[in-house]
Amino acid sequence: MARYERRRLRCDNALVSTADKATSRRRPPTFGPEPWPHTAPSGEWSHWDVWFAVACVVDCGGDWDAFDVRLTRERSGGVMPGAYLEPLWSHLLDLRERLAADGLGAAELAGGAVRDPKVLARARSKVWKQALEGRAKTAPMWWTPGRRLSERALTGAWPRFPVSPQGPYEAFAGVVDLDRHHGQWATMSVAEDLAEATVAQVGEADGDAARLLAIRRAALTCGVRAVRVCDDSCGTLGEWLRQAVTEYAVVPWRQTTMPADVFWQDFLELLGEVGDFGGTSRQEAELFLHAGVRGDLDLVETLACALHGEYASARWDFRAREILGLRAYAQVAAGAVDRFTATAAVLGSEDWQPLEAMVSCALRQGDAATARAVLRAADRPGFHRDWVQRRAIEVDRELGGEGHA
User: Does pTM surpass 0.90?
Assistant: First the structure.
């Protein structure tokens, strides 16, 4: 018995010793944001920084522009086009800025890592191929240009409101838990809670236009953030958003000290955010009409063009297309038929709905020539060129070919 115990004790000690050695040799996994542990130029560089530099040197001749082109090509295909492109591109922008500030190129950062087969293999896999999981993201990968613009749309203009929406927003956020996911049935309760809280705050405003503007605006931001964490399969929250944006548009903001340029830029950005969840669908022109766009159409067009440039620079392509559509809806609301053709030429056939809004508006005003000119201007390669051509035929049939050039 004593011999057996001694043998068992020796075996246990051997197992413990082996486990200790294995533990001491095991390194924590590297996901990318961790500091690069080897020799590198001055400053702190992450594994992602060096992987980018290695891939740039080996696969793109050290040319960051060529790297950008290849990254876009490699990451823009598949079932979810660009799903992993924006975070990686955002990191690339940040990396290039830091390198430029230090006067460094890709080769200087990569250094001898380009000659290490293991580093090269991992860099190529991480940069060109692998899916990007959350724990692998750097700060720029989380805070992308598109996300920055989205957050600006939700709260960026608030400091310039006559009454800041921040106070009302905090009250709304106290009613809705924005830090967790809500299932389908819980989402219905969220919509009810938001509706009740809005009614209560509006009642307390006692008709004060500046306070109403702040309350309605805060409710919309809370609603957008809520729908992002909710399962709105029943559409309850989306319908509440639709009603809430209409109520915001009819607030008499001109009775306040709100600057027109602040209101309209915020309005344009807000419609983009609400529109992501169907809150503006088929009522865009009506919203501009309620908000009183007619007297500010030139200003709204100028702001829309500037926003389009920002979205395009951020490669937020679908939002860039949306802002062009909003420009068209503003013109429809103002009845500015003389501007339709030029706007259609910019829109092309990428989005049929604002084109239809302009065509229908022109026909209602008895201006068949403009309706046809809109469709001719939009008849270019794009997602909805077939629709443009079919609609042109329909217009000709409706008008019996009269006046057709």
Answer: no
Q: What are phi and psi of 230, to 5 degrees?
A: -120, 155
Instruction: State the Cα–Cα distance between residues 299 and 331, nearest whole angstrom.
Output: 12
Closest C-alpha among 85, 94, 87 to residue 46: 94
Select from 294, 358, 304, 355 the least CA-distant residue to 327: 304
Instruction: Give every CB contact of residue 375 below 8 A, 6+ residues apart in sequence.
Output: 344, 355, 359, 388, 391, 392, 395
Phi first, then psi: what are they for 81, rounded to 5°?
Answer: -55, 125
State pLDDT tens for residues 147-196. 999 999 999 999 999 999 999 999 999 998 888 898 988 999 999 999 99
Backbone angles phi, psi at 247, to 5 degrees: -65, -35
User: What residues contact residue 126 under an 8 Å CB cut-off, 6+ apart?
Assistant: 32, 48, 51
Closest by CA position to 395, among listed 376, 368, 377? 368
CB burial class (10 A; 0-12, 13-18, 19+) of residue 23? Answer: exposed
Give alpha helix (H) positions in 250-316. 260-275, 284-291, 297-313
Q: Hey, what are 252's tokens?
A: 């008499």
Please answer whether residues 385 and 349 qualify as being in contact, where contact means their C-beta atoms are separated by less than 8 angstroms.
Answer: yes
Q: What are the structural domain ranges in the chain?
A: 47-132, 147-334
Spatial CA neighbour of 49 closest among 132, 113, 115, 130? 113
Reduce the DSSP state of residue 144 to 3 states and report it: coil
